[in-house]
Amino acid sequence: MEYSSKLLERAVNEMSQLPGIGKRTALRLVLHMLRQPKEQTLMLSEALQAVRNEVKFCKSCHNISDQDLCEICTTPNRDLGVICVVEDIKDVMAIENTSSFKGLYHVLGGKISPMDGIGPHDLNIESLVKKVKEGTIKELIFALSSTMEGDTTNFYIYKQIKEYEILTSTIARGISVGDELEYADEITLGRSIVNRIPFENSLKH
Amino acid sequence: MEYSSKLLERAVNEMSQLPGIGKRTALRLVLHMLRQPKEQTLMLSEALQAVRNEVKFCKSCHNISDQDLCEICTTPNRDLGVICVVEDIKDVMAIENTSSFKGLYHVLGGKISPMDGIGPHDLNIESLVKKVKEGTIKELIFALSSTMEGDTTNFYIYKQIKEYEILTSTIARGISVGDELEYADEITLGRSIVNRIPFENSLKH
Lengths: 205, 205
Description:
Chains A, B: May play a role in DNA repair. It seems to be involved in an RecBC-independent recombinational process of DNA repair. It may act with RecF and RecO. By secondary structure, chain A is of the alpha/beta class.
């Protein structure tokens, strides 16, 4: 594409580095900014700079945070004995949105994936095992995605902590609420039958 | 959505001001930036600032430019007597990509559209009529999108300049009626410039 302005070309090129944003979309976004007040672009770029340079990761759960300890870890009345192990920050937000969980989280920062060159030492696993060793945790809930990498990561952590006396669980896999049985995949449907729960329990929420 | 960081929330909110970018996409983009080196976010925000604050519009054709006159207006060997009238900057880029046009452009900055409150005086029409009056232009090519607003704009300009002895043409209707210029393929768009027809003929249908 021919740009009549080097400044425009540079902005489009930088913008199209972002995932899922091609040159055409980037151009559309930059031209949109040119039609908006200057303050709006200033605020956007300041906000991006601020989050990139100043954001911290919680020293306890590795969730994104403005302080050394995140809001969830410092909220009183949460159950300090139950830890939900998740892949990344978006999973924390998704579970928090349900209001169904009152324990704490542990963000691994990914899954073990040799194909992508990610081993156990690239993830926040050591600090999780250390927490378990300290003896204050009663239950670990594995909430990783149910892929080969997720299962591998679950199992790797499980092996490290099985000698300690804590409960381990994984989130229930089954048919989504509201979904038709006939469209569900066989593995999910099969698992939802094997792991059926007492009917009384399903009435609780 | 609950954010565990005010900095993250602010960045996501600013990002989701952009057209076609919702909160979820904005979050994905910001989290991607957090995984990349700080320099990358710095370069993006500097590039956006620079384009917003420093970019100029060509004093002659109103195309986006780094100088007072744009690269196209200052290129030698272009045919100064032929002016292609377009809606916006993306149309200049699209036509330049075809390499089928060696004249100059005139960017109107939109179309007459009473529904959106855009009248003739909101567009760069006066400066175009002034150019025609000065007598150096041999031909005007209307290359607005073939919508009602585009046709209205063509006709408005045509009425202002028909007393002067210049050729007027519109790009050939090789492009489907209702389609936007920027999405046309290069061959169709290129051919439509080569096969332009007298403006009077375009009024017949």
